[in-house]
Amino acid sequence: MNIDDTETRVDIRIRSKGKVEHICPDCGCSCEGYDKRERTWQHMDFFDMECHLHCAVPRMECPKCGKVMLVDVPWAQENSGFTLLFEAKGVELMKEMSVNAAGRYLGVTDKRLWRVLDKHVEERMKHQDLSELDRFYVDETSCRRGHRYVSIFVDEDHNIIFVTNGNDASSVARFREHLEAHGSKASNVKFICCDMGKGFLSGIKNEFPGAVVTYDRYHVIQHMSLAVDRARRHEWNVLREGGGRLKDATKLKGQRFFLLRNVENLSPSQKERVDWILESHKETVSYTD
């Protein structure tokens, strides 16, 4: 082990002792190493110092299938410049912060961390079993400036099962392809929850025609809240411009959040205001009933 005080870095060299028999991962044939290749992996920091592992990894040629390959090492995956522990730390950090921030914390570029994340996600997705899936939820979220969105599909336990670019009908089509590639089919899906976006609804109609669609509560309440506020504004303008009822118009102004709040959360004075509105302004009442 070498410690460089000036660079605050630790370098650890790993050597094998004696002759080691190697097994071909494809055919299981016994192989012997015939030369070595120097490899380096970044490891977890050692006493707040950057740590790297070095090892001359044997290269072997299988006598049966003829493949030439480097021997697998137990501390890192094939073609990775990081140890398994370093990758695990990176994945945990990326759950809690952006990839760019995780890269700054670990002292590596975000591009290298993206490759780690993509590899681990791809590995997990290979073993995903959706054969029992009979319902899913889909929503969109912004991923960058300029109205760029991704669609997120989750199961009833709110586990993410698929993410894809866009928020239109093609996003739903790509999810169906993913579903069928992982042990299920569109006819198995009985219930779908989504927002009222035309893209999702069009895609669901084409790809999952037999499913019952339910609008998620958040968007239903959002539309209802906007309708209540539009009615309140309209009635306020009518009272204000009609003349003779300026006092009533003043009372109605600024009452938006009282109308949208749960009744049990209102103070006595606030509840009194809401009761007055419900009794005096029938157009607004028609939206709150």
Quick take:
The chain is of the alpha/beta class and 289 residues long.
Strand content: 25-35%
Taking pLDDT < 50 over at least 5 consecutive residues as the criterion, the unreliable ranges are: none
Q: Gap between N and C termini, in Å?
A: 75 Å
Percent in helix: 40-55%
Order of helices and strands: EEEEEEEHHHEEEHEHEHHHHH
Structural class label: alpha/beta
- SS elements, strand count: 12
> What would you give as the CATH superfamily of the largest domain?
Ribonuclease H-like superfamily/Ribonuclease H
The main pleated sheet reads as: 5 strands, mixed
What is the C-alpha radius of gyration, as a whole number of Å? 31 Å
Mean pLDDT: 82
Based on the coordinates given, report the CATH architecture of the largest domain. Answer: 2-Layer Sandwich
What is the count of helical runs? 10
Dominant shape:
elongated
Number of domains: 4
CATH class of the largest domain: Alpha Beta
Which topology of the largest domain does CATH recognise? Nucleotidyltransferase, domain 5
